[in-house]
């Protein structure tokens, strides 16, 4: 006795199964009994049906049946496919049930196959003989894709045919036998119902209608939200009107909890509404249309299963229903069209290119670089930044002055034109940010340090450029440090390669340089020398150059920059914040090491002394140092340090941020200095960034300043740095859209993490990106991106991941550092790779790299 799995493909049901035991097929369909006598090439065979059981003798059969009266019943023994198999008419006719439409099926005995594989095959390809009863050639059967068939069935279009990719092998009795291990699966699946019951169809329809109702509720809620904010919407510039509407729709959409709806849609194989930011209502309407089509198809299917040939006419609508329908049509015709999928993404791309500039080949995310002060004088640095991948140059108005800014702008414009690479210029207004005041200056000394191995042996000499002040080294060789000298004209003519430069360093130790190269061209009044010992050179130090002929030349070191001092703070130390302008100084100790007076530094915002309270936390340098206010006076705030790293402590320098997260400190977006800087910015910048935006009033103040100067073409970048700014982001964007100026948002994560807490940073930055995308506003991913690489030359693994996450924004910003060129080049490489795998928040499913090496 043999057993086999039987699949019953159907145009309405994906797959139905039964088992063959001996020569009997147990079917779940209970219809009237009838039998057929037929012949094969080897022996006569018979097929009988009695009360739902097929009796096919001793061998497996390939059967096609038809319920239509008078239709041929074609049977063939499963074997070598002999051409002598014959077609005969059924001796008994099947009675008609309901309508006389043909419902064709093929029963196929499949051996050596698991139920899952058979069901998959049955659900993927439908034999044409199932659909077209006149197609009766088994040997040259054609197949139709099930998904295409179901779609065309609803649309009542002609079905496209395609041949089966591989020929179906003939079944033999040996193929019918299956292992005992598979019998359990066969028996398990044999209990599956083979017909779609009316109760399950009703439940399916109910589920579809419930999903449609929920989506309709979301749509109506979004439209009501838009109407509620219609006064603000009327003020929006026509250039931003569609984006403002979509922003309101998305905010209304996100005000609802749709987590359960998302799961139900995803489990049904539909979009879960993730990624609808740029086209919110279009996404909702699209899914609703799909669900309505499924509901209509389900009702048609249920009618076919119930034997109905024609749909029942609907009763005529009542007078009130007609009036409501007319009103709905008028409202629909008068409503502004929602932003489509293509339009939503296109508008965001257009706004990004208009504000930030075109994307370079190979990546879509641009790179913004904060220029150091040296960029005003260093042509080589600026040129190399262009080559490394810089697209936007950022100048911080909190540092330097208009004279230095002007030099930076000239160099950026010059190299942009010279290299044929577009580079926008962005200015950051300082804003009302609290900062530490300047520190006491340190000594004017320069440290020269060669590279040593773990044994203290010199493996690479320090390269020193010695030249008159303002003379830059020639291209092709980058020195480790530069030493300015005061010398007589043409002093380098007396120096030869191999001469020795001797001097006494700041510690009184004898040191020497070896001349290895002389300058040429514009750099001919300078020399390259190598140093193999650690040296400290002070301003005015005398350098004695000895030649091979015994002649000596003396030159003096020029003015060296003062070393920036810092206050070292450890846990439990005291720090005094002062209202008056003083130079910051470390704590003073007596001979026994006891503190005589604590460290002190100026706080740049005097308002904090009027509102700060004991017990409130204080953060310094973007949260690197933490403390608690111990006492407050009109001119001083005493802070006890509670977090300063390990026993070595942390260094606090001048111009570092101070945050009071729990203090009721309301600051206006523009300061007097900002208003003065705007005069320079509007004539030199492509965009300006406004710091510490807490509400629409801050943006309105900037718009008024720009309007007075007629600067409607300059872009406005809103920096979101506080929790209050995040909470008011939608209204801030609506205010920014009231003028023609282009709008962008910078996610300033440094102060945001301090103000809102580290734990919430990931959540807040993602929500800012989504809200801005719904408003078609480009975003800038900023603060501490590849900071370790820019400062030390070696990134952490977390920094690489964070930089890759920045590809979700339209731009990523890097801060300055000694290794900024390496940081820009690395970020360019990371973003180029991410462009192949990610499009905003959605993954792009290209083939896996090195798939052939995965061992599969």
TrEMBL record:
Enzyme Commission number(s): 2.7.1.40
Record's protein name: pyruvate kinase
Family under the similarity heading: Belongs to the pyruvate kinase family.
SUPFAM superfamilies assigned to the protein according to its UniProt record, in alphabetical order: Phosphoenolpyruvate/pyruvate domain, PK beta-barrel domain-like
A GO-annotated cellular component: cytoplasm
GO molecular function, one term: magnesium ion binding
One annotated GO biological process: glycolytic process
Pyruvate kinase barrel domain segment(s): 363-449, 597-815
Residue ranges of coiled coil: none
Composition bias, Basic and acidic residues: 323-335
PANTHER family: PYRUVATE KINASE
Cross-referenced InterPro entries: Pyr_Knase, Pyrv/PenolPyrv_kinase-like_dom, Pyrv_kinase-like_dom_sf, Pyrv_Knase-like_insert_dom_sf, Pyrv_Knase_brl, Pyrv_Knase_insert_dom_sf
Entry cofactors: K(+)
Pathway where this protein functions: Carbohydrate degradation; glycolysis; pyruvate from D-glyceraldehyde 3-phosphate: step 5/5
Residue numbers spanned by region Disordered: 79-104, 305-335
Alphabetical UniProt keywords: ATP-binding, Glycolysis, Kinase, Magnesium, Metal-binding, Nucleotide-binding, Pyruvate, Transferase
């Amino acid at each position: 006795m043999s057993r086999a799995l039987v699949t019953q493909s159907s145009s309405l049901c994906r797959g139905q199964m039964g088992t063959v035991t001996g020569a009997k097929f147990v079917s779940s369909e209970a219809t009237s009994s009838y039998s057929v006598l037929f012949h094969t090439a080897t022996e006569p065979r018979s097929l009988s049906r009695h009360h739902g059981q097929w009796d096919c003798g001793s061998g497996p059969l390939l059967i096609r049946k038809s319920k239509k009266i008078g239709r041929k019943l074609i049977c063939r023994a499963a074997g070598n496919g002999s051409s002598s198999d014959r077609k005969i008419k059924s001796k008994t006719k099947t009675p008609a049930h309901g309508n006389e439409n043909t419902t064709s099926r093929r029963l196929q005995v499949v051996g050596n196959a698991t139920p899952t594989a058979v069901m998959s095959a049955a659900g993927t390809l439908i034999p044409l003989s199932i659909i077209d009863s006149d197609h009766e050639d088994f040997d040259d059967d054609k197949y139709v894709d099930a998904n295409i068939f179901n779609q065309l069935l609803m649309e009542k279009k002609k079905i496209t045919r395609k041949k089966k990719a591989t020929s179906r092998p003939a079944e033999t009795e040996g193929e019918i036998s299956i292992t005992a291990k598979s019998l359990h699966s066969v028996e398990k699946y044999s209990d599956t119902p083979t017909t779609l019951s009316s109760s399950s169809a009703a439940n399916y329809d109910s589920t579809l209608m419930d999903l449609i109702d929920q989506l309709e509720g979301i749509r109506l809620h979004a439209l009501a939200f838009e109407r509620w904010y219609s006064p603000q919407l009327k003020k929006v510039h026509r250039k931003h009107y569609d984006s403002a509407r979509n922003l309101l729709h998305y905010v209304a959409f996100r005000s609802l909890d749709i987590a359960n709806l998302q799961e139900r849609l995803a489990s049904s194989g539909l979009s879960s509404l993730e990624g609808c930011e740029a086209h919110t209502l279009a996404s909702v309407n699209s899914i609703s249309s799909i669900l309505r089509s499924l509901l209509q198809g389900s009702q048609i299917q249920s009618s076919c299963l119930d034997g109905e040939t024609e749909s029942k006419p609907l009763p005529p609508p009542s007078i009130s229903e007609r009036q409501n329908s007319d009103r709905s049509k008028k409202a629909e015709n008068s409503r502004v069209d929602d932003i489509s999928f293509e339009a939503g993404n296109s508008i965001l791309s257009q706004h990004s290119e208009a504000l930030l500039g075109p994307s370079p080949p190979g990546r879509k995310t641009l790179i913004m670089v904060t220029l150091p002060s040296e960029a005003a004088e260093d042509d080589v640095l600026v040129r190399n930044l262009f080559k490394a991948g810089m697209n936007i140059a950022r100048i911080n108005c909190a540092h330097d002055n208009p004279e230095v800014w002007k030099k930076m702008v000239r160099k950026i414009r010059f190299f942009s034109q010279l290299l044929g690479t577009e580079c926008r210029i962005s200015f950051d207004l300082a804003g009302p940010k609290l900062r530490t005041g300047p520190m006491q200056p340190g000594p004017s000394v320069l440290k020269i340090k060669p590279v040593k191995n773990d044994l203290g042996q010199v493996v690479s000499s320090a390269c020193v450029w010695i030249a008159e002040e303002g003379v830059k080294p020639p291209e092709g060789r980058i020195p480790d440090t530069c030493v300015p000298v005061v010398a007589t004209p043409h002093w380098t003519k007396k120096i030869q390669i191999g001469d020795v430069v001797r001097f006494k360093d700041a510690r009184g130790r004898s040191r020497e340089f070896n001349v290895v190269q002389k300058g040429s061209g514009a750099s001919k009044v300078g020399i390259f020398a190598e140093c193999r010992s650690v040296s400290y050179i002070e301003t005015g130090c005398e350098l004695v150059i000895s030649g091979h002929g015994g002649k000596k030349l003396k030159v003096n070191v020029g003015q060296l920059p003062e070393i920036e001092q810092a206050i070292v703070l450890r846990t439990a130390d005291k720090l005094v914040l002062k209202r008056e302008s003083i130079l910051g100084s470390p704590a003073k100790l007596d001979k026994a090491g006891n503190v005589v007076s604590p460290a002190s530094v100026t706080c740049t915002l005097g308002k904090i002394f009027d509102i700060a309270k004991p017990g409130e936390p204080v953060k310094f340098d973007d949260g690197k140092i933490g403390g608690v206010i111990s006492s407050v006076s009109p001119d001083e705030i005493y802070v006890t340090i509670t977090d300063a790293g390990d026993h070595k402590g942390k260094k606090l320098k001048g111009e570092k941020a101070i945050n009071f997260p729990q203090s009721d400190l309301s600051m206006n977006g523009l300061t007097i200095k900002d208003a003065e800087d705007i005069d320079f910015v509007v004539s030199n910048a492509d965009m300006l960034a406004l710091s510490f935006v807490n509400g629409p009033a801050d943006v309105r103040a900037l718009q008024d300043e720009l309007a007075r100067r007629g600067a409607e073409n300059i872009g406005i970048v809103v920096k979101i740095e506080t929790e209050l700014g995040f909470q008011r982001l939608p209204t801030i964007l609506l205010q920014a859209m009231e003028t023609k100026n282009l709008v962008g948002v910078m996610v300033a994560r440094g102060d945001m993490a301090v103000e809102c807490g580290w734990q919430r940073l990931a959540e807040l930055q993602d929500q800012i990106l989504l809200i801005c995308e719904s408003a078609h506003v480009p975003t800038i991913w900023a603060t501490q991106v590849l900071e370790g690489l820019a400062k030390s030359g070696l990134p952490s693994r977390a920094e690489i991941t964070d930089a890759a996450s920045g590809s979700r924004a339209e731009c990523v910003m890097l801060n300055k550092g000694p290794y900024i060129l390496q940081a820009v080049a690395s970020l360019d490489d990371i973003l180029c790779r991410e462009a192949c795998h990610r499009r905003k928040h959605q993954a792009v499913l290209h083939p896996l790299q090195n798939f052939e090496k995965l061992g599969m």
